[in-house]
C-alpha cells in the first residue's frame, strides 16, 4: 500500500491540539544549538507546527449551524490560545498557562496571561480580562454576535 501521509498528517491524526502544544514545549526545552541532535529538534518543531495547522483546518466550526448560534458551544470548543495567536500575539508557555505582551497596551515585560483550562485571559498591566469572544470583540471592535461568529469560524 502506498501511504502518502506526511509526518505532520500522522501527528495531527494521533494527537489533540493540547498534546501538540505539549510536544512543542518539549522541543523548546531540548532544542539547543550546541547539541548534536539540534537538526532533529528543528525538524520535529517544523512537523509539529504543520500538524497544528492541519488540526486547525480539519476542526469543525463549532456552534454555528443553519443560522443558529450556540455561544456556550463556541466558547467551549474554541482554542483560546490559537485564536489569540491568530492576532499576532506571540505567546510562550508558562506552566499550564501562556504569557505574552498585551495587545491592548504598550509594554516591554509580558503581563498578558492566557488560562487555557479556564478559557480566559487577563492582563495584569491594563486589567483587560475576559473570554475568547470578549477578546475578539476588543480586537475587532465589533459587537458580541459578530465576535461569536468569528470565533466559530476561526480554527
Distance linking N and C termini: 32 Å
For the largest sheet, list the strands in their spatial order: 3-4-5-6-7
Whole-number average pLDDT? 84
Unreliably modeled segments:
none
Strand content: 5-15%
For this structure, the CATH topology of the largest domain is DNA Primase, Chain A
- What is the subunit organization of this protein? single chain
Instruction: Domain count, please report it.
Output: 2
Biggest β-sheet, characterized?
Answer: 5 strands, antiparallel
The structural class is alpha+beta
Number of helices: 7
> What is the H/E order?
HHHEEHHEEEEEHH
CATH architecture of the largest domain: Alpha-Beta Complex
- The CATH class of the largest domain is Alpha Beta
Task: Summarize the amount of helix as a percent range.
Answer: 40-55%
Which geometry do the CA atoms define?
Answer: globular
Tally of DSSP β-strands: 7
Radius of gyration, Cα only, in angstroms? 17 Å
Write the CATH homologous superfamily of the largest domain: Zinc finger, CHC2-typedomain
